[in-house]
Amino acid sequence: MSLIRLDKFISERTEYSRSTVKELARKGKINVDGTPVKASDTKIDPDKQAVTVDGRSIGAQKFRYILLNKPQGYVCSTDDKDGETVMSLVPPEMRTKNMFPAGRLDKDSLGALLITDDGALAHRMLSPKSHIPKIYIVKLDRSFKNEYINKFNESLLLDNGEQCLPARVRPLENSSKLAFVELHEGKYHQIKRMFAAVGNHVEVLMRVSIGGLVLPEKLGKGQCMELLHKDVESLFQNLDFDDFCSRFSPVFSAFHLNN
Ligand code: URA
Q1: What is the mean pLDDT of each run of 10 residues along the chain (259 residues)?
Q2: If you placed Cys at 92, which of 15, 24, 196, 234 could pair as Cys (CB 3.0 to 4.6 Å)?
Q3: Of 79, 106, 159, 231, which residue is the catalytic one?
Q4: Closest C-alpha among 30, 68, 67, 70 to residue 50
């Protein structure tokens, strides 16, 4: 990349306007190669120089990919007409102007949500043809029944006659009311409606993986992390569901889905 003004570079990759960048630089909050730069019109080479705002690095990459551990009570939208949005949880130095949640979780659902400004990637990920598997953990109102395993696998019919693609469900070890579910599609309230169709009720629902990307245990509720290139690629890979269930049962059975 050729030389670019520091304020232009930062304002294109964050929510900060050029005037805010100027102010932050004046306060010594912007570093280039570890040294505070007070003049925001300084020219830099983002390919060769490391820029940080408030200690957080601003990369030279074209698009940004954020993984949010969504808490309950936030809507997956950029428009706050239905309540506070997940966008408000992304710190300004991680946020760019064109970012949006790539995918949906209900307002009362938790877990892994990708937020990006890469429209083409989001389109590829969300296309019904892509069938990217997503794994959820649910806390049920009543005990899990083994008959759910076949019912989910045999294209369950929902209340309105809609047919689901085959899905997989497994109870967690040592727990009668926790289960993992793997879906290859995303109908409206799908998991809640699937359990309603078999006579149960979902009390809490959390997405724990998208493709091959597992929500890291260390990412607390409401926290965001920037994804590296290899993590973004893993969104298009698959996990072995049975292997996932045995590996992550101990992690999640100790885990309280209560919020
Ligand atoms: N299924 C649901 O019912 N809700 C979600 O948020 C995701 C999947």
Answers
A1: 88 88 95 95 92 86 92 95 94 89 96 96 89 95 97 94 96 91 95 98 96 94 92 93 91 61
A2: 15
A3: 106
A4: 30
